[in-house]
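To fix ideas, we give here one paired sequence and structure record:
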Amino acid sequence: MVAVAVVGSGVAAITAVRTLCTSSLENNLPVQVTWFTARRKMGSTQSSLSNSPMARPKPGDPFFDYGCQYMSPVSTVFRNELERWQELGLVGNQFEVSVLNAKDVHPKMTKLESPGWVGNGGMGPMLEKLTIQTREEFAGQGLEHVSGFPEVERQVTSTHRDENTQKWFLNTKRQACEFGPFDYVIGCFGHPKRTDPFLKPGGDAAKPMMEFLKGVKYNQFFALQIILEKGLDSEEIKNLSGCHILNHDVISFVADNSKKPHQIEVQDGVRENGQKPHITIISTANFAKQNQKANRKMVQDRIMESFANLIAKETTRQGLESKFQPKIHRLNFWGDGRCVKVVDGTDFLFDTSVNLGWCGDFCVGPSVDSAAISGAS
């Protein structure tokens, strides 16, 4: 039996696990996959009823996606996955997306031809349900799932290799628990602040991979969440679902999360009751880089003023307050928001000398589609 450990919680990990399990079953291969998940990825979905960034929204509750706002299939691999998710009732593909050029004399939203795909009830619940569905589909057929969220005592934080047996082992914090042995380890997460501590205990066997992953670079952004208490019938807000902002110094994307579908079992009731607009405003990478240590009140004000001018069509912050009565829910800062430097020439990293692999969007490009391609590779 060949033992494979897959570590990760996002789309790359899901497609890697599914590809390994499906291939081993179809070809009758003796492969045992152990899948270690830790935290919700691709942008947590926050409940607007709590100030905690880890508060899961209950079905039907208003929510904010504050990382990935929507998905666009480019590859056949990812389109097939999205269609499978749609059959499971976990995604919708009618989220309208527009573009607004801030340099136009009279900036206005221009709707794109193809709508975006979004998770029903948010990206976080979508990923959690996909994890559960994959675990159940392959239960007893070569897959074991070890969850490290919210069961943090089972969250693996490092790996090392026994050079005598040439097998890999995974450890939890302070080596309280050890998993293994494994013939192969596949990592499905990025950014050196996570890959370095995970791989460093692996010594010489893990050092080439660790050093290579240091070259993966990410940008940063602020994500401001606001709720509009008034002005719900204004044309500006009625027309807003998701909007890319071009040629602006402060904001790059705005989304109204209340236009996203809810989890399927509560969808009809939510549509009947309606919701106040729950807006996520994402800054540009340059603005976040320049102001990551700045006063947060100043950051909020700059983002709000930009939203007022470009989207709400109010020339002053006071006009925005009077017409829409916005309530700030939370300002988030992501230091590793989106990969900006990708690996050339391969969809998947693999060190054949020690059976250590790595995958993620950084191998292909900065998108969910790219993460799916890398995981399937």
Observations:
- The first strand starts at residue 2 and ends at 7.
- Residues 266-273 have pLDDT under 50 and may be disordered.
- The chain has eleven helices and 20 strands.
- The longest helix spans residues 11-26.
